[in-house]
Amino acid sequence: MQGIWPEIWTTLRTEFSDVPDASEATRMVLRLLMAALLGGLLGYERERSGKSAGLRTHILVALGACLFVLAPLQAGMKINDLSRVMQGVIAGIGFLGAGAIIKFSDERRIRGLTTSAGIWLTAAIGITAGMGRETTAVFATLLALFVLHVLHRVEKRMDQRLHQHALIQTDSNRTDLPMRRSTADDDV
């Protein structure tokens, strides 16, 4: 019975020896944490906006994409050979993103395109972090947050103005309604 414990310990040490030194372990942890953090930032924004794919989904997508790149790199795969791995991740995320898209046939509109694109981008950010390109991953996340937050407001304002313009056009075509004139107050 005494001989079994040293054998188990040796087996465990061998199985967990894929990280050769503290430097490699730190690099691995940093890349995984970076992917989780950046995915979490995007997920938090989507969660705050009340979207179906929120915090947990985006963190998991970023972590998974990071791991799909990190594990082959640790196994000795060359950066040039990672293109096949990345193609698989991109295709798989495409299926996940497709699940976020809903088409309302009676209203002739589609919902979930931004969420789907966000999931796809989150995977790309996870891949980027997994490859050790943290600066690129951070900048892409900041740019995505700008698009999701700031441009959403711009888009909303444009939609309101287009809707007002359409109402004015509709009202001007009717003879039974007085024509509405725009005033300086309409430009809010």
From TrEMBL:
Keyword Chaperone appears in the UniProt entry: no
Keyword field contains Kinase: no
Keywords linked to the UniProt accession: Cell inner membrane, Cell membrane, Membrane, Transmembrane, Transmembrane helix
TM annotation in the entry: 25-43, 55-73, 85-105, 112-131, 137-154
UniProt domain MgtC/SapB/SrpB/YhiD N-terminal: residue ranges: 32-156
Membrane topology type: Multi-pass membrane protein
Name this polypeptide is given: Protein MgtC
Origin species: Bordetella ansorpii
Gene responsible for this protein: sapB
